[in-house]
Structures are given as C-alpha cells and as structure tokens.
C-alpha cells in the first residue's frame, strides 16, 4: 500500500476535515494524492476556496497540495487508504457519543474494497475501533478484516492554536491489526511526520495511550484547581505558590483554570465509561472531572460574593467576561466552560456581557444561547478574564479602571495581570 501511495497509483482519503483532519489531509497532499471528505457541503466549498473553516490554517497552507475536497461517495471510493478524523464528543450526561465515528464507519463500509487500509484517529476508549467500528465496516462491505482489508489506529495529537507542536514535529503513535498492516501504516505516516513514529503493540494499546494523555493532564489541572480553592481560603495567591514550588527540578508545572475544549474535558469520560462497563468505578479520574466541571460555578460564586459585599444589589450588577473560546488565541468554542460561567452568573440574576476577538457571535448564540456584546460598558461591577488571548495582554490597570466601578473586581483566572492591578480588587485562581 505504501509504495502504491508514493507512486501515485493509489489515493489516501481523510474523512472529517475539522481541526484534526484538514491539517493531516494537507500535509499528506504535499507528498501523495489525497481526497478530503466531509459531509458538510458548505465547509467543502470554503476549503475549495482555500479557507479553513476552523480558522487554524492560512490560504498559503493549501498551496502546492494534490487534494480533492468532496462530499461525494463516488469520489471517496477512489481512495485505498482511509483516515478517520471525526469528533468524538460526550452527551449532556457525559456519556460517549459515538454517532460521528460510527457514521464514518458506515461511510467506509459503503466504499471500501479488497486490499484497502482504514486508520482511525478519533479519540475513543480502548476497544472501540475493533469492537464498535470494525463490525459496522464489515457488515456493510461484506468484507473481513485482515483477510480482505486492514485496520489500524493512530491517535491525533494536534493542539489547536499551537504553531510549534504540529503534525510533522510530534512523534506519531501508530498501530495495526497485524504485523504487515503496522509496517504499512507506519511507513505511510513517516511520509509526513518528521519526528518519527512509535509502533504500538496493538490497536488497544494505541487507543489507551491517547486516552491517558489527556486524563493525566485533567487530573493535574484538577489538583491545581483544588489547591486554588484552598489557598484562596487562606488568602494566598496560587500562582505565587506555584512559582515558588516550580523552582524544584521535578515539580510538574500545571496551572488552575477552566477545563473545556474537545480533549481534556471530554476524553476522560471515555475511559471512565469503559471502566464502568467492566464493573469498575474510576474514582480518582471522576473526582478530577468533578472538580474541573464545577470551577465555573466557583468562579461565579466568588464574583457574586464580592458584588454582594460591596453593593448588595445583585440584580442590577453588571459583569463583563473577556474571552469565550475554550482556550487562548483560537476561535473554537466547543465545550467552552466560559458558557458555564455565564450560566452560573445569570442564575444569580447578574447582567452579563461577553466579548472575544476570536469567537463568532452567531455561533455562540446557536450553541449556548448568548452572543457577543455589540458594545461594552464602563460601569461593570466585575470583569472576568477567562481566556488569556494575546490581545488582552496589552491591557493595563488604567483600562480596567475605565470600565469598572471604583469597588469593582478584576477576576483574572489565569493570573495574567498578577501584581499589576492596584486600584481595583484583584482576584485570580
């Protein structure tokens, strides 16, 4: 298969062209022939015009690429190597939502042929690729894994907004259903991953490796958030504590904050779901999730307590939230915990304005029921800086004084303005 791809006798297809799939497709398209497949016709039109719907890539990134963007199964059928990069979210009850990945499996089942390869990149629990996705492909195609086609798993490691840790510069974990498929898949990814690949011993090992990457980060951030709550009760600045502790060579440098997005705030639930199916209650992982999921309420409560103490009139209070995306310097609002902060403040009947230089107001309104303020005021009882966008780092205490009441609070969740705010009440996690 590898040689066919290199000789342009076979095409590689990427199914799902979001923040993960599109960079993969374009990277391969600089080396081999690629089909970029997505069910969203509007997104296909944008990419055909050199526009990344996720706002991660520039027009120049599309140049010099041998790629066809399509939503046609007939075109997709021309490929012999399929990469699945669709999202794997959780529902409102934090139960894994496998609909996108199973729909992608159905799509593959309709177009796969003998001798083809399928590699899943979507984050799933160990066993999902072989126990949930593979049966769908086999049923619809009438073909059998290993005998007629080969399947593998290679977890995505793309970090939105990160221009340094890119697909080519991060070691890629790869796996296959047998020895031959592992080597073919590994060599294919080595075409574009300059950092090299790590050959996992099985598909389940590769799936598990991905799921614990973000689970580990989630637990460490949960610890920082719990420490922040404790230190706040002691009137100690958490960031000053972390700065001091960080002078030790083996101290892990994590920070408190809202944990949203489509990875860290989601992936652990895939592992705990599978553990529950096996009769095990993942206490530590779920404890960390509980802490992180409740930080938005903690932030809102702290701000409201300040308002009550200084004015007592919560219903007429105004709060400005700066930042609505799930992390800094990206436009992605998926699973943004800022929405939870808004909801929590509104539960106290506080008037909330939200602004963000990267987020789309219509998208926020559709997803969370609120849009961006057309114009911000100058009499806020509190300002909450939830996301440290680069544009915010130029602001100073004169700016915050100009938009807040004299007794106002500057709630700086990530400690961006530590030791810089003296004329307003300053608080950070």
Please give a handful of descriptors for the protein shown.
429 residues; alpha/beta; Rossmann fold; 2 domains; eight-stranded mixed beta sheet; five-stranded parallel beta sheet; 15 helices; 13 strands
Write a short abstract of this structure.
This protein has helices spanning 2-6, 21-29, 41-48, 73-76, 99-111, 128-141, 179-190, 203-233, 238-245, 267-277, 283-293, 295-310, 338-347, 361-368, 397-403; strands spanning 11-15, 34-37, 67-70, 79-84, 117-120, 150-153, 172-176, 197-199, 318-322, 351-355, 380-385, 404-412, 425-427. The protein is α/β, with parallel strands linked by helices and 429 residues long.
* Strand order, sheet with most strands: 3-2-1-4-5-6-7-8
Number of strands: 13
- Summarize model confidence as the mean pLDDT: 94
H-E order: HEHEHEHEHEHEEHEHHHHHEHEHEHEE
Strand content: 5-15%
Structural category: alpha/beta
| Straight-line distance between termini | 52 Å
User: What would CATH call the homologous superfamily of the largest domain?
Assistant: NAD(P)-binding Rossmann-like Domain
């Amino acid at each position: 298969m590898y040689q066919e791809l290199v000789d342009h006798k076979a095409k590689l297809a990427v199914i799902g062209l979001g923040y993960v799939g599109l960079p993969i497709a374009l990277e391969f398209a600089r080396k081999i022939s690629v089909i970029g497949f997505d069910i969203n016709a509007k997104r296909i039109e944008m990419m055909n015009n050199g526009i990344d719907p996720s706002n991660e890539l520039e027009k120049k990134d599309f140049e010099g690429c041998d790629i066809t963007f399509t939503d046609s199964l007939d075109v997709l059928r021309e490929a012999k190597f399929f990469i699945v990069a669709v999202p794997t979210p959780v529902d409102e009850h934090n139960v894994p939502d496998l609909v996108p990945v199973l729909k992608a499996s159905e799509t593959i089942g309709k177009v796969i042929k003998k001798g083809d390869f399928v590699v899943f990149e979507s984050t799933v629990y160990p066993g999902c690729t072989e126990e949930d996705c593979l049966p769908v492909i086999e049923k619809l195609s009438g073909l059998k894994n290993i005998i007629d086609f080969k399947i593998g798993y290679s977890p995505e490691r793309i970090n939105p907004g990160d221009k340094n840790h890119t697909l080519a510069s991060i070691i890629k974990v790869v796996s296959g259903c047998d020895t031959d498929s592992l080597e073919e898949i590994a060599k294919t990814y080595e075409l574009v991953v300059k950092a090299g690949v790590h050959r996992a011993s099985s598909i389940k090992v590769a799936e598990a490796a991905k799921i614990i990457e973000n689970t580990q980060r989630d637990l460490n951030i949960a610890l920082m958030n719990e420490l922040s709550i404790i230190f706040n009760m002691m009137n100690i600045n958490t960031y000053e504590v972390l700065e001091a502790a960080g002078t030790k060579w083996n101290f892990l440098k994590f920070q408190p904050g809202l944990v949203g997005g489509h990875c860290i705030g989601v992936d652990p639930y895939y592992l705990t779901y599978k553990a529950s199916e096996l009769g095990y209650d993942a206490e530590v992982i779920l404890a960390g999730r509980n802490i992180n999921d409740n930080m938005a309420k903690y932030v809102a409560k702290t701000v409201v307590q300040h308002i009550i103490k200084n004015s007592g009139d919560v219903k007429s209070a105004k709060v400005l939230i700066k930042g609505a995306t799930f992390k800094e310097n990206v436009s992605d609002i998926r699973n943004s915990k800022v929405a939870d902060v808004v909801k929590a403040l509104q539960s106290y009947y506080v008037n909330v304005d939200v602004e963000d230089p990267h987020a789309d107001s219509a998208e926020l309104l559709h997803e969370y029921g609120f849009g961006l303020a057309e114009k911000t005021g100058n009499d806020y009882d509190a300002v909450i800086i939830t996301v440290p966008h680069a544009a915010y780092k130029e602001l100073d205490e004169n700016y915050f004084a100009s938009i807040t009441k004299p007794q106002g609070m500057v709630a700086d969740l990530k400690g961006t303005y530590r030791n810089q705010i003296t004329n307003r009440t300053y608080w950070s996690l």
